Amino acid sequence: MSRCKLIDSTLREGAQAPGVAFTAAARLRIIAGLSQAGIDEIELGAASPLHPWLPELLHEARDLVAQSCSLALWCRCKDDDIAFAAACHPDVLSLSIPVSDRHIRERLRKDRSWVRETLIHSIELALSLGIPSISVGLEDASRAELDFVCAMATTAAQHGASRIRLADTVGICSPGSISELVLAVKGAVSLPVGVHCHNDFGMATANSIAALEAGANSLDATVLGLGERTGCCRLEEAVGYLALVQGNRRYKPEHLPALCHTVAEAAGRKIAANHPLVGADIFTCETGLHQHGLAVNPATYEPYPPERVGSTRTLRFGQKTGFRAVALHLAKHGLHLTESEIQQLTKQVRACGAVLNEGELLRFAVAAK
Ligand code: HCA
Ligand code: CU
Asked: Which of 61, 147, 217, 269 could link 192 by a cystine bridge, Cβ 3.0 to 4.6 Å?
């Protein structure tokens, strides 16, 4: 798989989620956390005179992020918004335009030739105002006619865009269908192609990784998947998968818990105990079968060591406890009981009606001896 880029849109797409309104201080904390995690590009917001805080945010973000992290703005194809964006001096402007007839005709009451002309005009305007790099986001690409998607990607390339982004705006793609879309568009243009996947059927991260495997060059994500409706590809999942399964060393999963907690607090959201990579209980094990495997070799039942995400393994003992797990655990702490004592202890633990932590189990064992 070629080098991919992660583009975070927590401060743009994530801020569109209901009930979410980031403060200026929270935005800066989030930017700092994203940079620490090694994110390649941060979309700081939607360029519009309605967002007067953006010029200052861009200015302040420059001092916070690593050299290798680009600062981007998202923008509709509207002259006033493009002029506002240019005055903020982003590294990248993501110009967004719909390509499905549902959006073009029903929402905008325009036609495909309007889309083509507006796209050309907007790219040329943005370049003439000195924006160094233009990414073109094709909204609702997954429900658009493929020939038109490819034609707009080609038009964007011919007029100076540096990247195409395919949006699965209502999250209806599968890993197979997004891969086909990426392959088709990559066949039509020689520009980098990215994806922006929504999570309406819980497949945003899977679709994004499938897109990368099909040759996509970047993926959009938001922390905790914040965004419209069910949100988007979760940044923590993408970082985790790329770093911990694929061995990509640019991304730093150990910074994910702090980043996710910062965003959860700023957005007023809770993080589920089993949330991938950052949930409080993902390395807590209560079952005898798994505890036995973990005692033999943690890799039997863990995809990566807890320390990689700043966590620790926690064992608990209760009605799911097993004999072999208890024996191995006590031996690890230098407590050697006879087989029948361990059988007896296991029975007592299973029946005690509580869930014991490791220290409590040891005390229980000493008392029972
Ligand atoms: C939205 C627009 C967008 C745009 C994506 C892009 C989408 O719904 O607010 O410009 O690449 O999902 O289509 O986020
Ligand atoms: Cu979106």
From this structure: 217
